[in-house]
Each structure stands twice: as C-alpha cells, then as structure tokens.
Amino acid sequence: MNILTVFKESITASRDNPLLFVPMLASLVFSMIVNLVFAGSAMPMLGNLSGEQIAANPERALAGAGAAIGGIMIVSTISSFVSFLAHGMTVGMADMALKGESVTLQTGWDRLVSRIIPLVITSVMVIVIVMFGFILLILPGLIAAFFLMFALVAVMLENFSAGKALGHSIKTVKKNMGAALITLLLILGLTFPVLVLNFAIVFIPILGVILSTILFSIYTAFITILLVRVYHSLDVQSDRSPEVEA
Fold this sequence. Notes:
Blueprint: H1 3-16, H2 22-47, H3 51-56, H4 58-98, H5 105-114, H6 116-135, H7 139-147, H8 151-158, H9 162-175, H10 177-201, H11 207-233
Helix pairs in contact: 1-11, 2-4, 2-11, 4-5, 4-6, 4-8, 4-11, 6-7, 6-8, 6-9, 8-9, 10-11
InterPro entries: MetI-like
Subcellular location: Membrane
GO biological process, one term: transmembrane transport
C-alpha cells in the first residue's frame, strides 16, 4: 500500500464530492441539539439545589446526580449511535466516489437502509467492546478500536453479518499490520492539528461553535473516506474471513 497515493486519492474524492461531508455534519448537529435539550432541562433542576438543601436531603441530591449521570450516558450513547449511522452512510458514499460512481445523498441513504440492521448491531457491538476496553485501564480499548477499525466498512462493502464483520476486521488488520499501523499513525497525525485548530476557534463567541462543528464533520468524514480507500488497497480475502459470534 502506497500511503501517499491513498492519501491523495482520498483528498481528491473528498474535493470532488462535497456531499460526503453531509452525513457527519448532520450527525454532529443532531448531537448538539440533543445535548442542548438535555442541558436545558436537567441542569436547572440540579442548580436549584443549594448547599443547605443538599446537606438536609442528601438522598435527593444523590438521586438528582444519578439522574444527571444517567442522562449524560444516554445522550452519549444516542450521539455515538447516530455517529455510527453517519459513518456507515459515508462509507457507502465514499466507496461509490472512489470507484468513480455518481454520489448523491439518496444513493447513500438507500445503501445505508439496505444494511441498517447489521450496521446497527455492529455499531452496538463495537461501542460495547471498546467501552469495556476503556474501563480496563484504557489501553485495551485503544487496541480494540484499532483492530475493529474496518468493522463498519466490512458491513457496508462486503454485506457481512455483524459478527463476521468484526472477525473480518480483526483478520484484515492482523494480515496487514504494517499498513494498519501506518494508517493509524496518519490518523493520529491528522488529529493533532485538528485539535489545535479547534482549541484556537472554540473560544470565539457563537461562531466558534459553528466552526468547530464544521471542522470536526470534515475531519471525521475524511477519516472515514481514508479508511475506505485504505480498505480498497488491502489484502482482505473476504471469503475466508473468520466469524466472531454475536
């Protein structure tokens, strides 16, 4: 795999098909709205509890804190789930763009809908596995995310079941470890300037939030396009991929 060629072709596909960025942008906007709704309804309730009220009724304060934490977890789960759907739709559209086919939101949506059930199951499995790995001192979560980086790509491009997609991603990474590590380093290399730029613009009143949302939608969509292009160049041998039981 020539990483420079892969990178250039990913940029070309992104430049020639700006619709590729729409699903990720829509998912980020949706997540922002959900977070604002939650913050607008839950936080005032917690803010009304004074120090004296907390001391006098610690059970109520604990219940309120628990409800807030639970709400945060629910919102995070919903946001992650929508993000995975956007990722899946972008994968399908990126595959078409990289093959020189016409890309529209309708074709991307149709492709997403046709694979929605295995995509949802795979997304849940990836979230659970990676989150469990992060609970185990973070490093296992990073390793899991690394080996599962092509799971959703496999679901969308190979028509695999959820379990087989996870197994296929693991085998693909193991068989192409060098290329996978180079891809990871490239992603990390792209992440750092994005975080620095985001830190510089996020403090701009109102406009900063808008620019930050656009920046991360471009970043996440491009990483998805890059993963699809990398996957195209790997020795995947989909017909002999092992299946991980769901």
